[in-house]
Amino acid sequence: MTPFVYSRAADLADAIRQGAGEHTRYLGGGTNLVDLMREGIERPSALVDVTGLSADIVELLTGGLLIGSAARNTAVAEHRLIRTRYPMLSRAILAGASAQIRNMATVGGNLLQRTRCVYFYDDEGSRCNKRQPGQGCDAVDGFHRNHAILGTSSHCIATHPSDMCVALAALGAVVHLTGGSGERSIPLTEFHRLPSDRPDLETVLQPGELITAIELPPLPLAARSTYRKVRDRASYAFALVSVAASLELEDGRIRDIRLALGGVAHKPWRAWKAEAMLRDAPAMRAAFEDAAHAELADAKPLQANAFKVELARRTITAVLAELSEPGT
Amino acid sequence: MIIVNGAEVPLPEDPRVSLLDFLREHIGLTGSKKGCNQGACGACTVLVDHQRILSCLALAVQYEGREITTIEGLGTADALHPLQQAFIEHDGFQCGYCTPGQICSAIGMVEEVRRGVPSHVTRDIEADAVELTRDELRERMSGNLCRCGAYNGIVEAIAGTFVEQVSE
Question: I need a labelling partner for A253 at 20 to 30 A (CA). Which of A28, A46, A56, A188 fits?
């Protein structure tokens, strides 16, 4: 690990002041950043520990919830209002990582974990455009069974590994940011970037900008929601494909729907196309299949991850069928 | 300062020192083990203010003023923690390398269950109380690998210590 200066932010203003320094990174639970620093892939010269900033989860007058970015993943998953109003979010968090890591990881840090693959980690043996722009990507002709099928570019096919962010994308969460020039808020679906020709740029964060909170809008249909993760092991593995979904039904028709996919793209993938097709459609298997088919129509899989296209279609269909059964 | 097993200890000057290296190399508590050193195996699990974390992914300086409990703080050779005794009785290990992490993790896990934290396999996510079935126990302990494959004994040791009646 290259040497760095460690300091703790006393408050938000102090964090922003310290975070303006060159090669300075904010530190949450450290579960991804510390690991990447040890591997020599991240080399900040200063870390500003922001785990002492707001970790509160508060109900807003709108009926939504505001989650302080220092809240630990476990604290969000176990929160009474999140379990009852946004169960897909609790389920998504609980499907991710291990209990120890969920106890450490903050919400802000979860958003900012690197979109990554094994070639990104292999600093000495592999080419990676994310590590070194323009170098080339060894995953395209290598082991890419776990890699992306949607929104890919020839420069990068890594996936964003967060489960939590898939649920946040489906729920229409808003990311609150503070930087040297003030505050702004952006939808989570616009926070992460697709790789294009700059896979090293993963979010729209400006230098020195800090995530202060995640806002969940009031969304009554989210009470009927779930998250399903398909992976190689029963537990503690990244998703091959995951689905966050919520349905509002009326007389056998879909009045409203939220749908997002994980494990398929460089960012959490909101299934806008499928949602538009299913809004006001009959809640029937054939409609789910058609919508899933349309959402995956632009998939560009490679040899070893082509199975994900069919897996994603089937998982979307199965989750929506499950949610449309009475009593769920 | 940081509090390790009840004793105040000065923090390392170099912020690069992980909590695991601090425990093992700086203050001689070698019970916590370095398996993968990248957050994948759970051998380095310790308790911070009664919550289980991975000490290999933690910088020691981040935990100033916090209470750390390692396997050395749970039991001694002369006075074993009941869970240590149960690991012996149920053959919860072969080589023993993952055992300190397994035991710290299980103690943190039981605290989570008492608090009502649901898991990936909890059917009713809204329920206040969690029944610690063997499925729940396996899922909640999935962050601790045992390459000898002593999982059945580990599950029995934890169930025997913390669960009066574990349903299948």
Answer: A188
**Chain A residues close to B143, C-beta within 8 Å:** 97-101, 236
| Nearest-by-CA chain B residue for A1 | B16
In angstroms, what CA-CA distances link B18 with A26, A51, A114, A211, B10?
17, 17, 21, 25, 14
Would you say B68 and B19 are in contact if contact means Cβ atoms under 8 Å apart? yes
pLDDT at residue A327 tops 80: no
Judging by DSSP bridges, how do beta strands A65-68 and A269-270 pair with one another? unpaired
**Among chain B residues, CA nearest to A35:** B38
Rounded mean pLDDT of A57-85? 98
Which of 3.40.1190.20, 3.30.428.10, 2.40.30.10, 3.10.20.30 would CATH assign to domain B2-74?
3.10.20.30
What pLDDT is recorded for position B164? Answer: 65
* B100-130 pLDDT per residue, tens: 999 999 999 999 999 999 999 999 999 999 9
What's the topology of domain A226-323?
Answer: Enolase-like; domain 1 (3.30.390)
**Inter-chain touch A38–B37, beta carbons under 8 Å:** yes
Instruction: Choose the closest CB to B57 out of A34, A49, A99.
Output: A34
Query: Would an 8 Å CB–CB cutoff place B116 in contact with chain A?
Result: yes
Q: Does B42 touch chain A (CB under 8 A)?
A: yes
Residue B16 to residue A4, Cβ atoms within 8 A:
yes
CATH assignment, A5-51: 3.30.43.10
Tens digit of each residue's pLDDT (9 = 90 or more) over A141-200: 999 999 999 999 999 999 999 999 999 999 999 999 999 999 999 999 999 999 999 999
Q: What is the pTM of this model?
A: 0.98
Q: How far is B15 from chain A, CA to nearest CA, in Å?
A: 6
Q: How far apart are CA A25 and CA A55, in angstroms?
A: 19
- How close does chain A come to B63, measured CA to CA in Å? 11
Encoded amino acid at A63, one letter: G
User: Which token pair is B131?
Assistant: 């029944």
What are the pLDDT digits (tens) for A225-277? 999 999 999 999 999 999 999 999 999 999 999 999 999 999 999 999 999 99
Q: Which residues pair with A49 in a beta bridge?
A: A8, A27
